[in-house]
Write a structure and sequence with these properties.
Elements: H1 13-28, H2 30-39, H3 45-59, H4 67-81, H5 84-96, H6 101-115, H7 117-138
InterPro entries: 4CMD/NDH-1_regulator, AhpD-like, CMD-like, Decarb_PcaC
Domain Carboxymuconolactone decarboxylase-like: 46-129
GO molecular function, one term: peroxiredoxin activity
């Protein structure tokens, strides 16, 4: 199926996809993206293309916010909607993007006030596990 044109400037859909794949790999890790690509099927390929081009190739590549800010916003949105598997993935991504453990803690504390203590409590449990996993796999970056 032909891809629609990119919404930014004169970039093509193919360029947005390539840019998105590069950012997706940098943020989520090669291992994560390789596993997602290996699971891709005829049924899911359009969805994978959509998120690679739009989420990663159009939004995450915009110059208006740096990756640490995008990570903080993303974690907050995932807490708000109770998307816990995605939250776990984005805690590791936030560490990869340079957020410190203390900054992740602050994001979750902020969410406790605006999104509720039960959600923050659950987020802390997930984040603690994912930070330990990240440090084991990639080393402590404080």
């Amino acid at each position: 199926m032909p891809r629609p044109e990119s919404t930014r400037g004169d970039r093509t859909a193919e360029q947005a996809h390539a840019d998105g794949m590069a950012v997706r790999r940098a943020v989520l890790s090669d291992a994560h993206v390789d596993a997602a690509e290996a699971r891709k099927s005829d049924f899911t390929s359009d969805f994978q293309d959509l998120i690679t081009r739009y989420a990663w190739g159009e939004i995450w590549t915009r110059p208006g916010l740096d990756r640490t800010m995008r990570s903080a916003i993303t974690m907050t949105a995932l807490i708000a909607n109770g998307h816990w598997d995605e939250f776990a993935m984005h805690v590791r991504a936030a560490r990869r993007n340079g957020l410190t453990v203390a900054e992740i803690q602050e994001v979750i504390l902020q969410s406790a006030i605006y999104l509720g203590v039960p959600s923050a409590n659950h987020a802390f449990a997930i984040a603690q596990e994912q930070i330990a996993r990240f440090e084991q796999e990639e080393g402590d970056r404080s």
